[in-house]
């Protein structure tokens, strides 16, 4: 075995080890630096792995001394390496950018524990990307659930605790459905590793036996992962959790956590059941319909919000709808467009939440959009990030969202029965996106913002509100936002290599 083939296991292991070591450091800054060093190391290793697998190479790493079908293993190819690289870069930039907001929102005694949870959360995301075993995936789903709820309620307020409890309840419902589904699949196939399970599923499907237990397992797996990835109408928990958490937590939850579950869903569909069976059972039609509903309803709900982070949270529901619409097309072009939009959303939405957090910080941590008037003049880096992220979500040319929307439109022509629905949903959602993002940009760049006296009158005398026109100086925030924006524009203009890597990865993903 080549050394590079140890990268998937080592990436997961060092993040878990980081979670164990962090409480011993006794310092917020040390915990943060350790987290950034580990995530940066994973990014470098993921880049090396992507270079190794870019020609279509795919390999398995056996865990322990027992080979398949009894042992446990991880599996890596171009798609897994690409997603690991994107996730690690986004995680690094998110934590680097939000130092100021984390220091304000997370009390000193909780800071070390917060980074413990962030390390474990990222470890679980890497495991969902690489694992080739369903039960191992379930174990890391539970680690993901607990750590995600912890980073939501780390900010001390009644709203965040209530939001975390709602998130936990819905997540446990999803986890229960997934566990029952795994138990049913194991009873029918006798395997937990994905390839042996896939062979047993093919035998069942071709034997003419009653497929009702298999159908029930598929429905429960799809429903459980839909709940956890916030597909409408299972997304009621998302706005509160994302809007009330600190900016770093909101960024990670929206940009990365939701995608981890979708990656696992793609594994179940492509590696275990096969897309032919999914289409035959018409599961893809359900995902297609719910995806389109999410695109429209999520955007419509965003129009009704008065708090900036709730606008971005409802926008996430709409963007998840795009991904499920692509999966629901049931074609290779639709799947490629869905994966591309996962990357686009992972790069863009953390930038938007981070920008929103920066704008709120310079306005006395106000949540209302009206209170952010003129805030982009005090924090130009946050204002620029909001503009670039908004343009990407609307789908303006030269930004990343334009590429993924064009990919969805082109994919729809592979199934002419869905073309009108896809194009119509894209058009309606794009118009709605513009209707809530453009007014937000206008407000934050308005010439006059609320004065410090206005905050004092509202009982915010202790808030660190800069004087009118005083710029916010945060080098790490500005540098991270510049990297986010550069990555967004790079995907929007030089998307060819990314698309080819996605196609190469999907060809060997099943």
UniProtKB/TrEMBL annotation:
It comes from the Bacteria. Keywords: Cell membrane, Membrane, Transmembrane, Transmembrane helix. Residues 132-418 form the NADH:quinone oxidoreductase/Mrp antiporter transmembrane domain. One of its GO terms (molecular function) is NADH dehydrogenase (ubiquinone) activity. It is a multi-pass membrane protein. GO terms for cellular component: plasma membrane. One of its GO terms (biological process) is ATP synthesis coupled electron transport. Signal peptide: none annotated. It is found in: Cell membrane; Membrane. InterPro entries: CPA3_Na-H_Antiporter_D, NADH_UbQ_OxRdtase, ND/Mrp_TM. The chain crosses the membrane at residues 6-26, 33-54, 74-93, 113-130, 164-187, 216-235, 247-269, 281-300, 320-344, 381-400, 420-445. Belongs to the CPA3 antiporters (TC 2.A.63) subunit D family. This is NADH:quinone oxidoreductase/Mrp antiporter transmembrane domain-containing protein. The lineage of its organism: Bacteria, Bacillati, Bacillota, Clostridia, Lachnospirales.
């Amino acid at each position: 075995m080549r050394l590079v083939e140890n990268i998937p296991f080592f990436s997961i292991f060092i993040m878990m080890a980081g979670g164990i070591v962090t409480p011993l450091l006794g310092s917020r800054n040390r915990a943060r630096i350790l987290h950034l060093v580990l995530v940066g190391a994973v990014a470098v290793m993921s880049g090396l792995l992507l270079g190794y697998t870019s020609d279509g190479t795919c390999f398995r790493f056996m865990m322990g001394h027992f080979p398949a079908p009894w042992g446990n293993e991880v599996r890596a190819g171009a798609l897994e390496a690409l997603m690991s690289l994107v996730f690690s870069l986004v995680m690094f930039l998110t934590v680097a950018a939000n130092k100021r907001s984390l220091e304000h929102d997370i009390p000193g005694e909780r800071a070390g524990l917060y980074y413990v949870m962030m390390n474990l959360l990222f470890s679980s995301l890497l495991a969902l990307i690489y694992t080739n075993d369903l039960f191992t995936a379930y174990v890391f789903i539970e680690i993901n659930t607990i750590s995600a709820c912890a980073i939501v309620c780390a900010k001390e307020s009644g709203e965040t605790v209530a939001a975390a409890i709602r998130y936990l309840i819905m997540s446990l419902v999803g986890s229960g459905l997934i566990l029952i589904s795994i138990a049913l699949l194991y009873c029918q196939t006798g395997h937990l590793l994905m390839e042996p399970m896939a062979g047993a599923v093919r035998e069942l499907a071709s034997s003419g036996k009653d497929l009702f237990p298999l159908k029930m397992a598929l429905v429960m797996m799809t429903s459980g992962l839909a709940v956890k990835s916030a597909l409408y109408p299972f997304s009621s928990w998302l706005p509160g959790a994302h809007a009330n958490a600190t900016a770093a937590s909101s960024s990670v939850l929206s940009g990365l956590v939701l995608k981890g579950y979708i990656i696992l869903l793609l594994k179940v569909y492509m590696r275990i059941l096969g897309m032919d069976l999914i289409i035959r059972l018409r599961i893809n039609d359900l995902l297609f319909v719910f995806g389109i509903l999410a695109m429209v309803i999520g955007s419509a709900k965003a129009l009704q919000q008065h708090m900036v982070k709730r606008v971005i949270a409802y926008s996430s529901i709409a963007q998840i709808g795009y991904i499920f619409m692509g999966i629901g097309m049931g074609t290779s072009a639709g799947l490629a467009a869905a994966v591309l939009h996962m990357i686009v959303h992972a790069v863009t939405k953390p930038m938007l939440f981070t920008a929103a957090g920066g704008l709120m910080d310079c306005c006395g941590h106000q949540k209302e959009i009206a209170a952010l008037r003129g805030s982009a003049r005090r924090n130009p880096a946050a204002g620029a990030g909001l503009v670039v992220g908004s343009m990407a979500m609307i789908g303006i040319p030269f930004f990343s969202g334009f590429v993924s929307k064009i990919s969805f439109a082109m994919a729809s022509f592979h199934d002419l029965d869905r073309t009108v629905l896809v194009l119509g949903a894209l058009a309606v959602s794009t118009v709605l996106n513009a209707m809530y993002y453009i007014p937000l940009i206008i407000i934050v760049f308005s010439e006059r913002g609320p004065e410090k006296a206005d905050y004092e009158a509202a009982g915010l005398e202790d808030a660190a509100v800069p004087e009118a026109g005083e710029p916010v100086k945060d080098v790490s925030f500005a540098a991270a936002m510049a990297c986010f924006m550069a990555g967004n524009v790079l995907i929007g203009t030089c998307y060819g290599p990314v698309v080819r890597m996605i196609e190469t990865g999907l060809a060997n993903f099943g």
